[in-house]
Records
---
Amino acid sequence: MTPVIVFLSGSRRGTTLRLGGERLCIGTDPACEINIPLDTEPLPLPHHATLTRRGDTYEITTSSGAEVWVNGESVEHLVLASGDVLEIGRDGALLLFRVSDANNEPYKSIPEVFADCLECTRAEEGMVRKASAFAAGMPRELVTNTSRMFRSLMILALLSLTAATVILATRSARLQDRLADEILRVEGLSTLVATAQDQGLSSEDLAEVAQEIRATRDRVDSLEALSNVSARVVAAAAHATLFLQGSFQFLGPGTGRPLRMMLGRDGDPLANAFGLPALSLEGDGPLLEIFVTGTGFVASAEGLVVTNRHVAIPWEFNDAASGILGSGFVAEWTRFVGYLPGIDAPFELELMVAAEDADLAVLKAVGMSGRLPFVPLADTSPAAGDAIIVMGYPLGLRALLARSDEDFVAGLRTEGGDDLFAQAARISLAGFMQPLATRGIVGQVTRARVVYDAETTSGGSGGPVLDVSGRVVAVNTAILTEFGGSNLGVPADRVRALLDLAEGN
C-alpha cells in the first residue's frame, strides 16, 4: 500500500504527493518533504508537524507551539487512517491522507473527488462562496486527479458534446438562413401578388380616368406645346416608337410548373397569413402574372427593337422578386408584345441580347422584318446645351386612356373586362396608340451617359432621345417620377455596338 497526501487548499490544491521514507516534515520550510505554500493563511510554522512511518501508514506529531486538527479535532499524536483530513493550524492548509494500492497510480475515484471538493469548501464562509469553491474545484479535480481512463472518457465526452454543439449550431444557422429566405420569399410573393392585383384597370379605374381626361389632356397638351419641336421629326419618330407590354410568371424549381393562386371550393382565392391570395405550384387557379409596360424603338430595317435591359428582363430589377428567384424559381415571359402607331394589331417580341455593362437590350419584332419604320442612330454625340426630344409612353395604359376621349372610355366600361392586353388592343385599334414627345436640353455628356432635363416618368424607359434632326443620340433609361428633374440616357455608340452584336447572332 502507498500512502499519499492530497492538497485540498492553497495554490497546490488538487495535487497529490506520494509519501516515502520513515520521517517526513510538514511546514513552510523548503526542506520539508510536505511543503505548505507561503500563500496559505494562516501561515504554518516552518516545521509544523512530523509524519513517522508506522507500517502502511504514518503517525503525525505536532511541533511545540503548533496546532494540527484531524477530522475537526485537535491532536498532538495520532496514527492516521486513510481518508483523514488534516488542518495544519486552525483553519489552515487542508491535507487529505489516503492509502492507495501500490500497484496502481494514486488516482481518485469519482466519489473521492466529490468528497474532497466538499471538504475543500468547509473552510469557506457563506453558501455562495462554498458553491463557487465547489464549482471551481470539481472540474479541476476531474481533469488532474482521476484515472487516465476516466480522463480519456471525459475528454471524449467533451469532444462529442462540442461536436454535437457545433453540428446543432450549424444546423440552427442553416435553419435560420432557410427561415430568413422563406420569409423573404413569402414577403416577396405577397408584394408581387399585391402588385399584380393593383395593375389592372377596373371599371372603377376607368371611371376615374374618364373624370380626369380633360385635366390630363390639358397637361399633356401643354407639355407637347412646350416642346415646340419640328412636327416632321416627332411624326417620323412616333411611327417607330413602340409601346411595350408584357407579363411574366414564375416557374417552380425543377418542375417547370407556374405559380398559381389557390382557390377554395367556392372558387374564390384563398388567403395566406398576409391576407393576400395564397399561391401554389399545384391546381388550376389563375396564374400569378406580373404586368409591365415600357417603351422601345425600331432601330433597323430588319425590325430590331432597342429598349432598356430593365424593361426586357424586368424580374432582375424587381426587389420583390429577389426572394422567390433566390429560392430557385425561374421567371419567364408569358407574353411580350409591341404596338406601333398606324399598326392596329400587336406583334410578338423576343429578346436577342442584353448588355452586361449598360441598361440596354435588343429585341426582335417577330415576323415584322422589313415592315416597320425605324429611326437612325446619330454618328456623333450631342454637346451640352443641345436641344433634344424624348419619345415614350410614360404612365402606360392609364396615360393612353387619359389622352383618348370620354366616349372611348365609356365604351370600355360598357364592354366590361379588365384584361390589360385586351385594353391595349382596343386603344390601338381606336387610333389612340401615340407616344408622348417632350423637349429638353442636354446638361452633360460622358462615355457612359447623357444627362438632360426633358420631362418623362415611369413607362418612358427605353424610349429614343433624338436630336433636332431626328437621329437617336441616346436611349432613355434612368428617370425621375412626377415629370421633373434630370434624366439619364445611354449614348448611341453603346446602342450601335449592341445592335452589331445582335445582328452578328
Note: The longest strand covers residues 343-354.
---
Amino acid sequence: MIKGVDVSSYQPSDYSTKGLDFVFIKVSEGTSYKNPKWVKQRSTAREAGLVTGFYHFARAGSMSAQADYFLDEIKLAAGDMLVLDWEDPDVSNADKDRWIKYVQDKRPNHKVLLYCNVDFWLNRDTTSFPGDGLWIAHYNGKPGSPGVQHPWTFHQYTDDPIDTNLGKFDSRGALRDWAGG
C-alpha cells in the first residue's frame, strides 16, 4: 500500500511531503466557500511529484451548482482525481449519487470518488455507489483495514498529526496509471 494525506485550510500550504505518494486537497464547500490555500497546497504536491486529488465538501442544495462551483475553480491535469466529501447529514444519498454522476459526466477522463466515514457508508448509504472508488474514513487502529465489505480504494485511518491515508496500490506509479496520469 501507499501513503498520502489530505489537507484543507487548517494545514499549511507547504505541508511535509516526505514519504508520501498522494495528496487530496480541499477546494470548496457548498457554493460559497473556497479554501484560500488550495492553489499553494497543489503546488506543494506537484513539486513533490505526488498524485493529486481535489475534494468538495457537499452541503444541502443543488448538487449540479456545487459541482460546477468546484469544477470551475480547478484547471485539471491528467491523473487528477475528484472527490465528493459526504459528511453533512442534510445531504441525502440521492444527492451524493447525483453529484458523483454529474461530475463523471462533466469530467469523464478523471476518476471521481466518494469520501465518507464508515457510519455514513454502513448506515446512510443505500446504493453502494462510490463512483470510481471509495475513500473510507475509519480510525479503528487498523491502517489498511477500514472495516467495510465493499471494495475500497483509500483508507483514512488517523488525523494525528494530520489526516493520513493508505491507498490500495502497489506503488505511486500504479496509482498514477489508475488515475489516468
Note: The chain has a mean pLDDT of 97.
